[in-house]
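Researcher: For the record, we're logging two predictions in this thread. I'll number them. Prediction 1 follows.
Model: Prediction 1, sequence and structure:
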Amino acid sequence: MAQSYESTRNSGLKAAASEAVLKGIANDGGLFVMRDLEKKKIPIKSLPGKSYLEIAEVVLSTLLDDFPEETIKECVSKAYTDKFSSHEITPLVKVGDNYVTELFHGPTSAFKDLALSILPHLMRAAYEMNDITGEIIILTATSGDTGKAALEGFKDVKGTKIVVFYPLGGVSKVQELQMTSQEGVNTFVCAVKGNFDDAQTGVKNIFTNESFNKEMGERNKFLSSANSINIGRLVPQVAYYFYSYARLVEYNAIKTGDKVNFAVPTGNFGNILAGYYAKVMGLPVNKLICASNENNVLYDFIKTGVYDKNREFYKTISPSMDILVSSNLERLLYYLSGKDNERVREYMERLNASGRYEITGEMGEKLREDFYGGCVYMEEAQKTIRKVFEEEGYLLDTHTAVAYKSLEDYKIDTGDESVSVVLATASPFKFAGSVYEALYGRTKDDEFAIMEELSQKTGVKIPENLSEIKNKKIRHFETCAVDEMEAFVTKASNKSINEVKNG
């Protein structure tokens, strides 16, 4: 079995793709990366005319190189057939002078569905390929969307339990209800007293706690992750960049080989990193526009080369971007440093010790060749929602608005007239109160009444999965402090595997 993946922090820690998917995170706390990524080219000319499923098969077979092609095909089919409200899966629409790729047509109305619909199937396949007989405990911290998408994906999947932690008071009401009403005998949800970074750090600490992992192993239980730190989460996201490009060619917006820009609402850096992977694999990308809100640690990093999380944390109307420690950035550092594992390890140690590190000037130049940093505060995001709806009749959510405005700022700043795509990461109805306020001002506090009113006034239909939540029974009530997260995982893992239905 080819061990084409290694830890960002230690080139000696190798894994096959299937092993990396199962582990989620390397034993030293590093993330799994493919050393020879630049050799894995996708034939661009062959993509126009292909369906989303066909393009996903090509991308996944290329990056998950020890999975048999038939297995990839089966996983893709199970993940996307009849599960999305659009037959295109991620339709591309023209909005003003730009294009928008809608990533919110899945079962939870967020872009995380594209990866989390397929991850359970990839894990099941990897489970069998590696002769695993124990139980896999999926641990996930969420800033809002990953939680529900992961819970839905792993619900009642045999041989797994899924534990999701979210920041108490740090997600929208709809996001919280999506998680706390989750069905499935193998699903466990807990609100953490803290912000997303606290929850994410707590999960990472559990993964790197050797004594805890040893104890779990002795009970034939193994930890893995559904966060984008898991390469099995990241790889499926690469597909929609190639699909968007193929659609642009089909629409005669570009010719094959023309470079395009992608503007991406960015928090944990997974979504935009998938775009970087696509570029390395041959997609003609001009600039990846990294859009930040008030929590602009990435904006500053791109401008200065200094990553400094020591700053005020803001709760904003785009909560999935309220992050100061962007985990997937570690993978980018690996490639920017020329695959220098030791240097990446040193950066991560500095981040852990002081909350800050600074990359070399050469790395900074490479970073800015591929990325442009945008920063949009709440008032500008609200204006963008209003302006785009009034002028184009298109309803943006609070995160996509940040990316849309960042793209407009980039065009003014650079004069670049390349065809550009904004990734729309969530349905506006997941953040109905904030979107309504941007358009019409403050209204009642009932999120579902706002949803109905927003739909009536804009003529945009509420996704079925969101309109049904208000009638769902609450099933998960627990909260914990950061230092109690491990105890919650132990409690969840003690539930008998025999109670979990066959997936």
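Researcher: Logged. Prediction 2.
Model: Prediction 2, sequence and structure:
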Amino acid sequence: MAAATDTAPRVDFTTRKPRSPLRDAMNQLFKNKVAIAALVFIVLEIIIAIPPVTDLIAPFPYDRTSLYDNLAPPGAPYTGRAEEYQGKIFILGADYLGRDLLSRTLYGAQVSLAVGFVGATVSLIVGMLIGLISGYSRPAIDNLLMRLVDFLYALPLLVFIILMQVYFKAVARQQSSTVSGQFVLPDWFGWAVALIFGVAVVAGVMLARREDGGGIQYLFIFLAGAIVLSFALFIVLVMRTGRSFMASLVEIDNAFGGMFFLFIALGLLNWLGMARITRGQVLSVKKKEFVEAARAIGATDRRIISQHLLPNILGPAIVYETLAIPGYIFLEAFLSFIGLGINPPRPSWGNMISENYQGLRAAPWTVLVPSVALTLTVLAFNFLGDGLRDAFDPRLRGE
């Protein structure tokens, strides 16, 4: 009689595509309702700040004055003499010169967002580059770069930026008598920059979607290269104008409404914190087992940096810069408030508050409108930064 044998039941194993850390972070981010609401607000603000969209939405030009409507309250009709504006109303009121506050607030968003994103981009690129070189190089180079960073940290940042803006404004006034005409970018320059960034985005996305080790770091690398190439093309165009260097800079600053010198002042020292964050991340990651394993199988330094170091430090770097954007926006508003920011009549939330704070009792809406816009924008970036920090840090999300 044959003995009965028990066989184990057949188990079917279902394969599931592994999730990447970036996808886990995005899933965690979408669970944070406050961060998503802040992201939606920022995206809508960016769309509104696009110049053609702003021109379409704004009911009046930002420099259109009407002394018949000075300090008009919110909802007051336009009573000026221009026929093309008859029937329109001042939705959020008018300032002491009869300029529409809604229109000036919308155009002021262009300045604040431009300063915030340019400052964050410059800080991210320069800071990560210095931090990667310092953290991955031998100790002699690391000490040299970090002592330079320590020396620059000793400078009072706000005072230094104020002094730079005073110098730039003085140069602009000195050159105004000798500079004639207006610096206008040719049409081919805009198409060239758009083509450079288009190719960079497409190439970065295609490499980021590869399954053989690609990642979002490729998109960052290609965008950084596009920014450097566009800046080099811009400098070549400036030098071919035939004017002196400072005269060309003054014309560029006038073409940007006073933002060009502000970008220079913000970009010179704001990368210091990013360099220290990147160096610390590199020092903690480069001794990990997977980096040692990659080095043991003969991986080059470039591959180790691009495939192993950069993907692991890019998340904290982006979170840090997202949290730093409100500081750039506040710094621009402060400089414009004391008269060292955007050139009037170009509106900025800082100079709008500066021009109208003396009439706070008689017409509080002239100060409240730009103040509320500034507060909401800063809060949105803070909430988004907190959400990104919780999403990219597994320890903060309980994993």
